[in-house]
Amino acid sequence: MRWLVLLLSLAMPVVSWFSQQGVFGPTNGAISDRYPTLIVAAGYAFAIWGLIFLWDMVFGAWQAFSRRAATDPLAGIRTWAAAGFALTAMWMPVFSQQLFWLALLIIWSALACLLTCALKLSTARITAPGLTAWAWAPLSLHAGWLSLAAFLNTAQVIVAYRLLPTDAMLPWTLVLFALATALLLWANHRMRGNLPFVAAALWALAAVYVKQSGWRLPGSDTAAIVAVAVGLVLAVQTVWLRLRPQPRP
């Protein structure tokens, strides 16, 4: 399994490069522009994938070659990590082919896998601090970004298939924001203030504010304010959790 994790960590940036070259069809950015939503982030935010892929590859190499990686906590998340990496790589060509329902299922499944890794490692690192930089941090960052990306993808599916009004998107967008907030706060609480997870989420929310504050869609100004509010709540929760006494190993 450790070699599969390594190979899949390498596969993600390779598939991403081909996707951005238009090998699988229109690029993700081009498709996203066709279906504007009130939860979409500014384009620069997606540069975080470079850091995510790089750190995931470091994790893949470390867990394959390091003797310290032969621990019970890490053995318990390899399958989840492999599945999360595979699904992340799979999502890109599927989305380019505009198979939106399948892409939605894939991204939510990827989030479930990577969030499981982050939750498990957040507990394990209390007794095995060596997992922090090599495993907990990269997988938490990946999970944090997907926690917002999954809702962005959901909003795009709603617009693409006109499942809800596209001329008045604010009401159902607020519901998505509420659900995203609940997920972020619940996961962050379970992980006692997971800094990489929160950093990725705040990066995404800041980019949503940047995009929506200059957007012309009805309700975009409100969406921008809501994104800031969610970010502030998440940041305050993180500070509170980090200041609380941590359980001893």
From TrEMBL:
<keyword id="KW-0472">Membrane</keyword>
<feature type="transmembrane region" description="Helical">
    <location>
        <begin position="100"/>
        <end position="121"/>
    </location>
</feature>
<feature type="transmembrane region" description="Helical">
    <location>
        <begin position="169"/>
        <end position="187"/>
    </location>
</feature>
<feature type="transmembrane region" description="Helical">
    <location>
        <begin position="74"/>
        <end position="94"/>
    </location>
</feature>
<protein>
    <recommendedName>
        <fullName>Tryptophan-rich sensory protein</fullName>
    </recommendedName>
</protein>
<feature type="transmembrane region" description="Helical">
    <location>
        <begin position="194"/>
        <end position="210"/>
    </location>
</feature>
<feature type="transmembrane region" description="Helical">
    <location>
        <begin position="133"/>
        <end position="163"/>
    </location>
</feature>
<feature type="transmembrane region" description="Helical">
    <location>
        <begin position="39"/>
        <end position="62"/>
    </location>
</feature>
<keyword id="KW-1133">Transmembrane helix</keyword>
<keyword id="KW-0812">Transmembrane</keyword>
<feature type="transmembrane region" description="Helical">
    <location>
        <begin position="222"/>
        <end position="243"/>
    </location>
</feature>
